[in-house]
């Protein structure tokens, strides 16, 4: 029976064989990798990954698709976790000593940002991540300071990862076609990210980018004074999108120390 894509799960199934093989080539799965795929859907990518991997974990929310996956694949090779990826404990996947987790998936656009933040919490345990996302989201993730697309998502992820937009995927590669272009992003956790309290940084960045047209002095008024910005090398007259990740981290660390 044909599976009808469900809007509430943000289901758009990748069907283009050329794109699928390009994604697999970009990921470069190795037989002994500890890999988890988020949202395997109709298993187009799952089947190709299992051509190279001895074992694969998948996290799938749609129970109908869970049943399909369990019937189609040998459970000794594919372990299906029936769960919401936003709530799933990725540390529950056993990883042998000397190995780190590899995470892949065609992420539902409606949960992409919160899911990326959820995964950032386990960044030290991850080797790399390869995701299909809305192209606009990927552009925000990899944006440089000074760019119109540089913002909260850019800062919070660039603090933890090196990221690269690998290639763009057109709507007609999916069934049903989404209304936007997609893109593949590679995310590699930084070996030594700047030390910072994630909650404090998140609160600062959220406040800073809440009024993008204003200068940063006005955006963080009540949190940081003009002199405190100057003391940390930040021009009070600069717009938030001109402030590099390192300066946001320094300001967040200062706030943490000030509150101690």
Automatic annotation (TrEMBL):
<feature type="binding site">
    <location>
        <position position="84"/>
    </location>
    <ligand>
        <name>S-adenosyl-L-methionine</name>
    </ligand>
</feature>
<comment type="similarity">
    <text>Belongs to the class I-like SAM-binding methyltransferase superfamily. rRNA adenine N(6)-methyltransferase family. RsmA subfamily.</text>
</comment>
<feature type="binding site">
    <location>
        <position position="14"/>
    </location>
    <ligand>
        <name>S-adenosyl-L-methionine</name>
    </ligand>
</feature>
<dbReference type="GO" id="GO:0052908">
    <property type="term" value="F:16S rRNA (adenine(1518)-N(6)/adenine(1519)-N(6))-dimethyltransferase activity"/>
</dbReference>
<keyword id="KW-0949">S-adenosyl-L-methionine</keyword>
<dbReference type="InterPro" id="IPR020598">
    <property type="entry name" value="rRNA_Ade_methylase_Trfase_N"/>
</dbReference>
<feature type="binding site">
    <location>
        <position position="39"/>
    </location>
    <ligand>
        <name>S-adenosyl-L-methionine</name>
    </ligand>
</feature>
<keyword id="KW-0489">Methyltransferase</keyword>
<dbReference type="InterPro" id="IPR011530">
    <property type="entry name" value="rRNA_adenine_dimethylase"/>
</dbReference>
<dbReference type="InterPro" id="IPR023165">
    <property type="entry name" value="rRNA_Ade_diMease-like_C"/>
</dbReference>
<keyword id="KW-0698">rRNA processing</keyword>
<feature type="binding site">
    <location>
        <position position="60"/>
    </location>
    <ligand>
        <name>S-adenosyl-L-methionine</name>
    </ligand>
</feature>
<keyword id="KW-0963">Cytoplasm</keyword>
<dbReference type="InterPro" id="IPR029063">
    <property type="entry name" value="SAM-dependent_MTases_sf"/>
</dbReference>
<feature type="domain" description="Ribosomal RNA adenine methylase transferase N-terminal">
    <location>
        <begin position="19"/>
        <end position="191"/>
    </location>
</feature>
<dbReference type="InterPro" id="IPR020596">
    <property type="entry name" value="rRNA_Ade_Mease_Trfase_CS"/>
</dbReference>
<comment type="function">
    <text>Specifically dimethylates two adjacent adenosines (A1518 and A1519) in the loop of a conserved hairpin near the 3'-end of 16S rRNA in the 30S particle. May play a critical role in biogenesis of 30S subunits.</text>
</comment>
<feature type="binding site">
    <location>
        <position position="106"/>
    </location>
    <ligand>
        <name>S-adenosyl-L-methionine</name>
    </ligand>
</feature>
<dbReference type="InterPro" id="IPR001737">
    <property type="entry name" value="KsgA/Erm"/>
</dbReference>
<keyword id="KW-0808">Transferase</keyword>
<feature type="binding site">
    <location>
        <position position="12"/>
    </location>
    <ligand>
        <name>S-adenosyl-L-methionine</name>
    </ligand>
</feature>
<protein>
    <recommendedName>
        <fullName>Ribosomal RNA small subunit methyltransferase A</fullName>
        <ecNumber>2.1.1.182</ecNumber>
    </recommendedName>
</protein>
<keyword id="KW-0694">RNA-binding</keyword>
<dbReference type="Pfam" id="PF00398">
    <property type="entry name" value="RrnaAD"/>
</dbReference>
């Amino acid at each position: 029976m044909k599976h009808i894509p469900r809007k509430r799960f943000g289901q758009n199934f990748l069907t283009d064989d050329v794109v699928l093989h390009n994604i697999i080539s970009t990921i470069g799965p190795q037989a002994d990798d500890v890999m988890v795929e988020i949202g395997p859907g109709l298993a187009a990518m799952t089947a190709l990954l299992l051509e190279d991997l001895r074992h694969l974990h998948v996290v799938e929310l749609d129970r109908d698709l869970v049943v399909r996956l369990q019937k189609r694949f040998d459970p000794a090779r594919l372990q299906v976790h029936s769960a919401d990826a936003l709530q799933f404990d990725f540390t529950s996947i056993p990883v042998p000593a000397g190995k780190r987790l590899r995470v892949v998936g065609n992420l539902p656009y409606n949960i992409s940002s919160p899911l990326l933040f959820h995964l950032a919490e386990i960044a030290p345990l991850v080797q790399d991540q390869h995701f299909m996302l809305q192209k606009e989201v990927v552009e925000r993730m990899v944006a440089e300071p000074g760019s119109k697309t540089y913002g909260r998502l850019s800062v919070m992820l660039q603090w933890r990862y090196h990221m690269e937009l690998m290639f763009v995927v057109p709507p007609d590669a999916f069934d049903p076609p989404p209304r936007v272009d997609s893109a593949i992003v590679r995310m590699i956790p930084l070996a030594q990210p700047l030390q910072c309290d994630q909650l404090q940084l998140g609160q600062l960045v959220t406040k800073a980018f809440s009024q993008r047209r204003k200068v940063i002095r006005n955006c963080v008024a009540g949190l940081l004074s003009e002199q405190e910005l100057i003391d940390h090398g930040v021009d009070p007259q600069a717009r938030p999108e001109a402030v590099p990740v390192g300066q946001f981290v320094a300001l967040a660390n200062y706030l943490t120390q000030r509150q101690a």
